[in-house]
Amino acid sequence: MGQLYYEIAKKGENLAFPGGLYPSVGSGGIISGGGIGTLMRKFGLAADNVLDARVMNVNGEILDRESMGKDLFWAIRGGGGSSFCVILAWKVKLVRVPSKLTVFTVRRKLHGQTINLLQKWQNVSHKLSRNLFMRVLIQNMGIGSKKIVQVSFQGLFLGRVSELLPMLNQTFPEFELVTKDCFQDPVVNCAIGLPCIKKECFEVPWIHTTLYFASKRTNDSIEFMVNKTMPKRKNYYKATSDFVKSPLPKEVWGMIRTMFSDEERPMMIFDPLGGRMDEISKFEIPFPYRKGNLFNIQYMVNWYDNSENISNKKIKWLRELYEKMKPFVSHFPRNGYLNYRDLDFGKNDGEYRYSNSRVWGEKYFDGNFERLAKVKSKVDPSNFFRFQQSIPPFSVST
C-alpha cells in the first residue's frame, strides 16, 4: 500500500485512496478483504473503490471485470481473492481531498474521567461528521512499576485546524485541544514502552497523514512509504477482532484496565464506522458490516521472545480477553474482520466441507457466506485454491 500511496502523492496533493493504515501491507490482500482505513467514513472501504481487476483463474486464464463476470468481481472485493483466483492488479478510484488535513492525538490514563470520555466516544463517534475519523487505542506505556494503561484518541479530519477545533471542542471539550497545541514541531507517535505528550495536532498533506498513522514524524520523507527494509528485531503477535452494535457498558473499561495491567505489550484499537459506511448495502460486496455497526475492535498482544512458554502465555492472555468481551459485542454469529484472520474461529482441517466452514465463514461474512461458496462452486469447483480458511464450494449435504 505504501507504493500506491507514494505514487498517488507524486500525482498531486489533492488525490488519495481510502486504504489501510500500514504501508507495508500488500494491496492484493487488504483490498480483497475489504480495507478499513482512516478515510472509510467519507469514502467507504478500499474494496468499495475498486473499478476493475486483473486476475488469473484456476485454468491459467487472465480475466478482467468484464470477462470474469459480476459474481467473481463481487466476491474478490471483500471476500478474500485467494479463495477464488490470483489477484494480479487492481484498478482503483482515487478520491479528492483538501490540500491540508489535520491529524491529532489526545492521550489520557485509563481512569474515571477517561472512562466517561470513552462512553461518550462510543455513543457519538459513528455519528460525527464524515470528514472526521477518530479512533481509540488502548495500550500499556512505561516499564515495570511505572507502567500505565493509556488511552489515545487519534483522529484525521478532512480540513484545516480552524474548522476542526470548533467541531471537536463542542463534542469533546474535555480534550482541551486549542490552536497553540498545533503547528508545533512534529513528534514521533508513542511506541509501546515510551512516554507520551498529552496532546498534539498537525496540518499536513494527505500523504503525511499516512506517515502519522504509521507512527512516523509527519515531516519525515515519504520515501518511507517504499522502504522495504526489514526491522532488526522480529516481532510476534496474536490478534483477533469484533464488531460492536451496542455501546459497551461502563464496567468493561475497568475489566480492560485490569487485564492490561497484567500484560506487557497488549493493544486494542477501536475504529468508528458510520458516515458513508451506513449508506452502502451489506450485500453490495461481501464485507457486511454497514449500518447498525458502531465500531470495530482489533485485539493484539505482541512479544519478542518466541519460546514456547512465552508465546503460549501471550496467546492464552488474548483468548481470555476475547472471551471476557463476548457478552458485549455482536452475536449469533459473533463477527470478525477477514483481514484480521483468526484461526481460533475455525479452520478447514483438510476436509473443506461447506457445513464445517460455515462456523468461521459466517463470522467473517455473515449472510454473504453462502453466496461466496456458490461463486466458489462456479469458478473453482475442484477447490484448487485452498488453505486453512479458504471458502469451499457450496454444498447442501453435510
TrEMBL record:
Q: Which GO terms describe its molecular function?
A: FAD binding; oxidoreductase activity
Which InterPro entries does this entry report, sorted A to Z?
Answer: BBE (IPR012951), FAD-bd_PCMH (IPR016166), FAD-bd_PCMH-like_sf (IPR036318), FAD-bd_PCMH_sub2 (IPR016169), Oxid_FAD_bind_N (IPR006094)
The species this protein was found in: Solanum tuberosum (Potato)
State what protein this is by name.
FAD-binding domain-containing protein
**Gene name of this polypeptide:** LOC107059843
Copy the pathway line from the protein's UniProt record.
Alkaloid biosynthesis; nicotine biosynthesis
User: Record keywords: Ligase included?
Assistant: no
Question: In its UniProt record, which GO terms are filed under biological process?
Answer: alkaloid metabolic process; nicotine biosynthetic process
Described purpose of this protein according to its UniProt entry: Involved in the biosynthesis of pyridine alkaloid natural products, leading mainly to the production of anabasine, anatabine, nicotine and nornicotine, effective deterrents against herbivores with antiparasitic and pesticide properties (neurotoxins); nornicotine serves as the precursor in the synthesis of the carcinogen compound N'-nitrosonornicotine (NNN). Catalyzes a late oxidation step subsequent to the pyridine ring condensation reaction in the biosynthesis of alkaloids.
Is Signal among the key words of this record? yes
Q: Which family does it belong to?
A: Belongs to the oxygen-dependent FAD-linked oxidoreductase family.
